[in-house]
């Protein structure tokens, strides 16, 4: 019998998934169901990362796609027994500081949070419903992007707004928590208990200050818009701009949402692309300014987060840009020597893991993130498959 847990990341028309064994860090298979609907596609990779043929299936709905995924896995592992499914869920609200097994009550609670994350939460919940339908009786475990930050001190949880808004949930939730959780779990001993700033720089980008492995402050706030500029999101913005757009330009909430989530950030500044690789080679003044702005905002946030935790022992880069762009890492670090940050160019060119110069006071590292593994660990734990047994 092959016991396994499945991780699912459900978007509006896509499902990213990974099948993990009951023990061990390497998935048995991974894949993507895309364009769920009449033109749906399903791509699978096996344990070695090589493409594997997918079973024919009905890709018109999330439930159909999940079933097709599982049938494909069964083709590879005929004696497969699914113990649990772990779901990436963007919002766990005020109360969830850890993963939770989904019951009807939990589901109702998560549905009520949809207004806090209207672009993602409903799709994540569709994934849970679809998996519950496809695998009756199998535990569904919700893993939240917000959970890792829930024990931040009040001062980093609040906005200076009337109290009643805080009480109804207008707080700084922070996101990318599954990524930070993973990084915290693999920090080397000498820095694990120190003050570490993690820069998750992907299409979505944020930073988090850790002390002793726990989140103290982060750049994202109530929504995934705040903090750093991103591929298409604006990052930090003066709320007065939004008032101007509403009052003077008559823009609706939907139009402003589209502007801030989809047309801003690197794309908006460059007028060219949200893709850092493309901007690095574009050589237009606007692309250079977009990169300048991104780098500058990263530097400022690192300074701000270091102030929040009273210093810095290590800086960790992760996600697409953080893991791969030696140029952006070098440019961010170039003006941080006052924080003891000094890169070794050869190590930086090799993408780490340690990229700081020998003897530099602050350790700088590149650590590839692994959000799926954090979800798989939670899915295992929920059904009593402990990591101790895995060791
Ligand atoms: P998401 O937030 O969608 O998961 P990723 O973590 O995959 O995004 O990051 C995507 C970003 O990483 C894109 O801007 C992409 O251009 C950038 N990226 C990936 N590889 C490189 C590279 N070699 N050099 C520069 N940027 C890169």
Automatic annotation (TrEMBL):
Gene Ontology BP annotations: acetate metabolic process; acetyl-CoA biosynthetic process
Source organism superkingdom: Bacteria
Annotated binding of substrate, by residue: 88
Enzyme active site: 145
Site (Transition state stabilizer): 176, 233
GO annotations of cellular component type: cytosol
Pfam families: Acetate_kinase
UniProt-listed SUPFAM superfamilies: Actin-like ATPase domain
GO molecular function, one term: magnesium ion binding
Matches recorded under InterPro entries: Ac/propionate_kinase, Aliphatic_acid_kin_short-chain, Aliphatic_acid_kinase_CS, ATPase_NBD
Record-listed ATP binding positions: 16, 200-204, 275-277, 320-324
Location, primary (coarse class): cytoplasm
Cofactor note: Mg(2+). Can also accept Mn(2+).
PROSITE patterns named among the record's database cross-references: ACETATE_KINASE_1 (PS01075), ACETATE_KINASE_2 (PS01076)
CC cofactor: Mg(2+); Mn(2+)
EC number assigned by the record: 2.7.2.1
Family from the record: Belongs to the acetokinase family.
Function according to Swiss-Prot or TrEMBL: Catalyzes the formation of acetyl phosphate from acetate and ATP. Can also catalyze the reverse reaction.
Subunit structure: Homodimer.
PANTHER family recorded: ACETATE KINASE
UniProt-recorded name of the protein: Acetate kinase
Annotated source species: Fertoeibacter niger
């Amino acid at each position: 019998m092959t016991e396994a847990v499945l991780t699912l990341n459900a978007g509006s028309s896509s499902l990213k998934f990974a099948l993990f064994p009951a023990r061990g860090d390497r998935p048995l298979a991974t894949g993507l169901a895309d364009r769920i609907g009449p033109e749906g596609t399903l791509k699978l990779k096996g344990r070695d990362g090589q493409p594997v043929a997918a079973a024919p299936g009905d890709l018109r709905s999330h439930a159909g796609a999940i079933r097709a995924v599982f049938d494909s896995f069964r083709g590879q592992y005929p004696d497969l027994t699914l113990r649990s499914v772990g779901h990436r869920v963007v919002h766990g609200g005020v109360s969830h500081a850890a993963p939770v097994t989904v019951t009807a009550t939990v589901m109702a609670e998560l549905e009520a949070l949809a207004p806090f994350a209207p672009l993602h939460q409903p799709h994540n919940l569709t994934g849970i419903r679809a998996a519950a339908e496809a695998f009756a009786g199998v535990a569904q475990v919700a893993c939240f992007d917000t959970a890792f930050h829930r024990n931040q001190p009040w001062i980093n949880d609040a906005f200076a707004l009337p109290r009643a808004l805080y009480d109804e949930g207008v707080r700084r939730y922070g996101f990318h928590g599954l990524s930070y959780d993973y990084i915290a779990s693999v920090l080397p001993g000498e820095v694990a208990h120190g003050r570490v700033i993690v820069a998750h720089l992907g299409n979505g980008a944020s930073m988090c200050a850790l002390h002793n492995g726990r989140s103290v402050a982060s750049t994202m706030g109530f929504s995934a818009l705040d903090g750093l500029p991103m591929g298409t999101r604006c990052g930090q913005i003066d709320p007065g701009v939004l008032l101007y757009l509403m009052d003077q330009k008559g823009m609706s909430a939907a139009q402003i949402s589209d502007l801030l989530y989809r047309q801003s950030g690197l794309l908006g500044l460059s007028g060219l692309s949200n893709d850092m690789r493309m901007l690095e080679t574009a050589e237009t003044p606007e692309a250079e300014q977009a990169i300048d702005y991104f780098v500058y905002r990263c530097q400022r946030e690192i300074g701000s987060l270091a102030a929040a935790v009273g210093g810095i022992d290590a800086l960790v880069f992760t996600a697409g840009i953080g893991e791969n762009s030696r140029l952006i890492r070098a440019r961010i670090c170039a003006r941080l020597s006052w924080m003891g940050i000094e890169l070794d160019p050869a190590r930086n060119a090799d993408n780490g893991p340690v990229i700081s110069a020998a003897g530099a006071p602050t350790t700088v590292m590149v650590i590839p993130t692994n959000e799926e593994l954090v979800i798989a660990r939670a899915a295992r734990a929920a059904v009593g498959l402990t990591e101790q047994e895995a060791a």
